[in-house]
Design brief:
The complex is a heterodimer of chains A (105) and B (120). Chain A has 105 residues and is mainly beta. Chain A is built from no helices and eleven strands. In chain A, the strands form two sheets. In chain A, strands 2, 4, 5, 6, 9, 10 and 11 form a seven-stranded mixed β-sheet that branches.
Amino acid sequence: DIQMTQSPSTLSASVGDRVTVTCRASQTIRSYLAWYQQKPGKAPKLLIYEASSVESGVPSRFSGSGSGTEFTLTISSLQPDDFATYYCQQYDSDLTFGGGTKVEI
Amino acid sequence: QVQLRESGPGLLRPSQTLSLICSVSGGSIRSGDYYWTWIRQHPGKGLEWIGSSHYGGRTYFNPSLKSRVIISLDRSNNQFSLNLTSVTAADTATYYCAISPIYGDYVIGWGQGTLVTVSS
């Protein structure tokens, strides 16, 4: 099984900050990585797929990069609506999610 | 745009079978464009993939749950279902139905989720 490790688990930030979340895979997953945003009581929302492709309708301040085993999600200028939990997910072999990163004030 | 809605009992006793239905609107179960997927989230925890099924016949499961899971597609009612046998308290979670495109197992659509509690 492919394990996904996210860091940090919690991130304290302010509006306007540049925020980076890291996701590491236990073996290469090529570029088969997605990022989701989840708010309390809601289903997750797709932000990024294939490591760096931004889903339609997602603000341009969200970007993804990486390949192989190390990936990053970057929010260029944190907005009030961005305080949420973020998950990575590999889909190179079955599906596995990371443990999540909570972005809080 | 495909919309999904889960339904099913919210409370089960240990050893019972969890049965959930996902009703699909705005799209067809018979579409070859999607995998129909179940994902769960334990209270306050992360996401866990349960399994996925394609109308063409391919079905695959999380190895840790495979022996207890059945996913079925019902083309007559345009819905798909999850059966999870021999539940325990560890199966208490919010269960989401979801869809993934055929060309990549990332999730492009989610139901609103339904909380299932297993308790004696």
